[in-house]
Batch of 3 targets.
Target 1
Amino acid sequence: MCGIIGYIGSRKASEVLISGLSHLEYRGYDSSGIALMHGNSVDVYKAQGKLVNLIEILKTKQDICDISHIGIGHIRWATHGLPTTVNAHPHTCNCKNLTLVHNGIIENYQELKEILQKEGCIFQSQTDTEVAAHLIAREYGKTNNLLKAMQSAVKQIKGAFAFCAIHKLEPDKIVVAKRNAPLVIGLGEGENFVASDIPAIIEYTKKAIYLSDNEVGVVEKNSIQIFDENDKLIINKVEYLPFEAVAISKMGYKHFMLKEIHEQSDVVRNVLSGKLLGINNEIKLEEFKLTPSEINKITRVQIIACGTSLHAGMVGKYIIEKFAKIPVDVEPSSEYIYRDTIADENTLVIGISQSGETADTITAIKQVKEKKSHIAIITNRADSTMARLADSLLPVNAGIEVSVAATKSYMAQLISLYLLSIFLMEQKFGPSAINDEVKTLKQELIELPSKIEALLENASNIQRVAKKYANYKDFIFIARGINYPSALEGALKLKEISYINATGYGAGELKHGPIAMLDENMPVLAILNTGIVYDKVLSNCEEAKARQAKLIGVTNYIADKDVRLFDDIITVPSGSDLISPAVNIVVLQLLAYYIAEYLGKDVDQPRNLAKSVTVE
């Protein structure tokens, strides 16, 4: 973990590497480093903390930066060893001939390390990556060929990796390898690039080759060769990158997170475009490959995801069961992969991931594919590993999301799940299933962008509430029914970027333990929408107020007699309970953002978090 960049060509390598790493900062990291090749020498520069610290070091090395046209770089999110300069990438072998950067986790690194130590290797760091550097160097000693050394080494490694290596004795190439971690080669004229994600190279090229698992590549300035797991040369498949450089600009906003919150109305329009053509028309999901008769054979749905995507899946459970009348299980991918799961050819498995590279979810998808289940993937990255595993791919078209805390991708996932739920119902039961409730939901989906824009234009009350509660150390979010996931997601957003200890609960569970924590120092945010659970949530608010908790209501309706109950009320546009998660979440995102901003936190790059979690 967490970001790789490589360059070979005629530009100053240091400038390309630093630019690429700066566009990968959104992934989250705690140290950085680059290696610059010049002649038959390689110089490694590393720094703890933010990229600016590395840039300061390079200012004193201008002579090397001016002459180097080959290099590799890395930003690290610590997995093995503390986030120190010694543990930062790149790593070298003892003779300093080979230099390596790596994303992923080497599962058998301890066994390999013991073998290498017995052979005389001396380790400087606590990382699993250094093991790979020594291993590849050992194989180079046998072959005197960097490609063959990499091919031999990766066959001895268990786990996930994206490797990018250079060698003093072969100063005209970069050798790369991939398994269960993303890696892309960007194509240029007289130059080529390597990266773990598109933003690192999008300002330089629009053409790329995506490596598949167990492939090893040789990248030179005028050529690229890729070999499969049997070491056979394969034909390169060139694809065009889907993003513009402007997508990674703040466009005048103070933070990417605020920009991405404001983009959500357009995101909804993009997801609905071409799929929801009117309230009387059936949903069109051409990407979904099951026929009506096959849909009728589905006996269960399993949704697997992590973090924010898991919360979207929990909303999906409510609406799929309501409309398609199919039982739905929602489970964290990290739990799904370590138990005996029941799935078969009549199971629809929905994997959800913003990046499409979430390691736990990828592993779960691979496991369940062996059981012949139909795999539908909802992701923001149609170029990702999960997308390539899909039987049905539902790209959410949210555009690149830079801030580590997911906002617009969550909204896009929600809307995709609404569309999928209605689609499954219509395919299963036919046009007669489009009743008044379905038509109302479709109309609300169409009107949702304008409701989001109205909230964003009148955010001053949210800012006021944020400032009032910013200095509290703990927070509780409560809701019931379809908004229970909203409470979980709202609490997650707050803890992610402000570091306030926020927890979400089903409101009915408050009295089964959490109520013991309530006093005047514990704010409780309650989500109330008109609907079947409104009165019940209101009763739970009474219970909280009786314990002197500060009470915030996020609601589309409060009776005059109940206003006295709340210390603060944030009003959202009216609408049905069914659509309310897509409205309420905007308030919760803004509240978390303004609290974190008021506290002076690094909103876009919160500590310890990574945007794309490519390790289990």
Note: Residues 256-449 form a domain with the Rossmann fold fold (CATH 3.40.50.10490).
Target 2
Amino acid sequence: MTTVAIDFGTSNTVVCILESDTQSPKNLRFNRLSRIFKKKTATGEVQDIPVVPTLVFVKGNNELVLGEQVRAQRWGFNQPERLFKAFKRDLALDFQPPPQQIDGNSYNAKSIAELFLQTIWQQLSQQRIEPEKIIFTVPVGAFERYLDWFRDLATKLKVPQVQLVDESTAAALGYAIKRPGALVLVVDFGGGTLDLSLVRTASSYQISRYQGSKHKELRAQVLAKADAYVGGIDIDTWIVEHYLQQIGSSRAEVKGVGWQNLLEIAEKLKIRLSTAESAKESWFDDENFIAHELLLSREELEEILESRQLLEQLRQALDEVLAIAYSQGITKSKIEQVLLVGGSCLLPAVQQLVISYFGRSKVKLDKPFEAVAHGALALSKVVEVDDYLHHSYGIRLWEPYTHTYSYFSLFAKGMKYPCKRPEPLTLQVAKDGQQEIRLDVGEIAELSRAEVTFDAQGRMSSSQLHQHEEYRSLDSKHQQVCVARLKPPGKVKQDRISVEFEVDKERVLLVTVRDLLTKRLLVKKKAIAKLQ
């Protein structure tokens, strides 16, 4: 069976397959779409790592330009309204940005992402690759709507089998799949997200369904997870904003074309500062006849990262993972390797912070771009993945006295499933004569946002990290699930139903409902939502 793994990234997308003869992962290269990164191996050999820049430009007559063509030929710099970048991030938003109207056609993040991946799929056919299974990698913090979008896409592509794997788990298997019992922490820091996952591999004996013989295979156990909504594209923006503050300008003054050019320069500076102490890039604004020269040192970049709370968010994520691990009897010293993946992990400040936690000998950076996709293919050989709930879940309730919504927590992030709430939830109707009680099940997101202030000279003077929770309904249309039909109708201020909640081994949320008035069992273990 031919399996293709696609690591759909905010900045770059990696596609690979298992070679039939060697059963080793092979990165696929697509003419005109792929950008080549050079990587030096431990033996000194230089390897080409092909990636597809996650960029789409809409030309006239609904014609699309994708990947490296957009970056190399600078499509979109003079027409930024036709350029789509970082659209992976928009897929996860609770309220989607309004679509863009181009040449009478409507485009949004979902349609652009679908066109982007469909084009890659067509490239597979041109290389005579006909996959029977596709594996998509997704961030640890991905919400259910984002995952549903991938399942729907696989249906449109007419792929018989689809599997979703979180990126951090895949990366861990990409590094450590060959040795059972490895305990590794993955720090996956790419263009759009920061994901951490503590994973242990273990051997497992399975019985062949055909011959009845035993064989040894590998499974993965995810012990702890954490994530933050921050990535490399934020760093590019911060570098530009820092420069504009220095020269007393703003995004509005440089306008769309200037902003795109400055972002490109910022990305170049960021990449160069991974190996150099200082970097300089210039650009002449033909529209406004202004010469821009961006000079940035590694020390200044680290000050920007610290003031924008990026390093603090990384510290918090590391502390969260270590706290969950400690609650399971796993101390920091027991973690054998810390694996850095994603382009943003090339930043020295990020590496130094991780090294300060675990020591230089444990931190590895051998596969910054391809580990996730390779690990996803390795996971296709894994018999079982023991996991924990990736998010906290709750139900939204209407408060009749305050005329506002609140939410009630059901299961906390990190709980191992199958699991059951120890106490049932008692509910009332919102108005007299109500004949149904419906539940709006959703995920509870933990979000962080940094606020930065500047002094009169344009220097960053202070910052503060704000944390809050946000409720996101699992259903995109916010349709509530009916769990009880009341006969007789309900009355206000009267306890009417008792609801028991549990999560089965397939991560399906089940409810059992009893009518407290009639003493009848209304629903027994009804499936109302698929959790992540």
Note: The CA atoms of residues 262 and 275 lie 21 Å apart.
Target 3
Amino acid sequence: MNLRNLHWSLAWAALAIALAPFDAFAAPTIVAEKQPMNLHAIGMFFVFVLGTLMITWWAARQTKSTSDFYTAGGGISGFQNGLAIAGDYMSAATLLGLSSLVFAKGYDGFVYTVAFFVGWPLITFLMAERLRNLGKYTFADIVSYRLDQTQIRTFAAFGSLTVVCCYLVVQMVGAGQLIKLLFGLDYSTAVMVVGALMLVYVIFGGMIATTWVQIIKAVLLLAGGTTLAGLALAEFGFSLDTLASQAVDAHAIGIAIMGPGSMLADPINAASMSLGLVFGIAGLPHILMRFFTVPNAKEARKSVFYATGFIGFFFLVVMVLGFAAIVIVGKDPQFFVGGDTKGALIGGGNMVAMHLAKAVGGNLFLGFLSAVAFATILAVVSGLALAGASAISHDLYATVLKKGTASEKDEMRVTRIATVGLGIVAILLGILFEKMNVAFLVGLTFGVAASTNFPVLIMAMYWKGLTTRGALLGGFVGLISALLLVILSPAVWVTVLGHAQAIFPYDHPALFSMPLAFLVIVVVSKLDRSARAVRERAAFDDQFVRAQTGLGAAAASSH
């Protein structure tokens, strides 16, 4: 294999995680062949790993308590936390997947990003302040504030772990394929390397290390994407008008790329996907945990403000990359099989950002972006592992099993054991799913988060009538219905299981499972006339006062 094809094979492996948010258009999971080493990417990779290991060593010396481990002691500023949140949300899928959609579909690709972005105002205005004021370590602190601790925390932990495991599989498969190509390792060995690094970051550094890894990764991704956009725009005299006109001339469908097309032609599937993306972000446990790392509600709001700015800016950068690739990549035969621009792109059509990096920045810049893709995966995996471990140690062990009597030392010990367990599970699932289409798992992740965690969380914060019975039944109905609909969808029933026709015709469950969860929560809570339900409704007034005054975090710790 020549050097040119090697670089594109490497870049293609990074796309394994980019398949996820675009599962409506995904192909089966790419299984790359083991390749010789890519020295450019390996050099960048070692710089990143050594730097983050030094941060982990520093963070381990700062981590003295459970508060330090779970929430960095609440000492992260709004700006820092905004970068970390943006790092959690901006993935290789953002850089690679969205730019590819714009390359192929034009304006339609930009419309697709709206659903990813709209969830942030929801978090800013409805959730950030109350999350910080009512919670301590996990979102279960809020949900169980006035409801039954044992039952609600068990349910919340179960929902969180479902989301975490689904997301971990996708990240581990993508990371394993990338490391496999970087070092020429077997896939299983590559997955183990990623799992080992994740365990080091989480076990020794906790949230402090995870936060700073996310910040560094966000800066790298922003810098890499912006630099690439700048280099690309230089080809057009930094004129967006010139870029747009040349893109229209170069694209096969011409001026049609500047208007809405048929990518989301099915309105039901489009609405269901949008609901899952908008409300799913408000139910992802590793995102929600970030609001407990800041000292007060004001910093929590600032976190979302900064994160929204960083994410919005990056989406605009990605749009520029997609349109620039139409012209620069589309006219260069070296990126096409057989040197014919009418043929297939080397490494696949979903790799236009990497093709563009090669075209305007050369091999070194391509190696840098490959290392950034790995940094992206590793940072997300660490955040997911920490969210899952906290659900096991804080929600299940310390609160449900020990009823609040566990010492900080014991809770930290269980957290580290849980992290090791999650790491082993992530490695095993990553190996198991190597040759399977994992794209449906992110659709499932957002669908479960939107149908399980979000309804219970938002009702716990804002509806006085919520009862334990309503929250449990509604949450489990949302979880089970989301799981069943995804299994019966074309993404699983046809693509994975091999049946001729799907029982459920849509790829995304949220339009059906999320309203069902809300309906069950309301109906069951309204019908609940038990003495416990009366006490839970009466306790809402105290919760409301604490949510407004910022006294809830202290109360949650002793609740």
Note: The chain has one domain: 3-49+77-551.
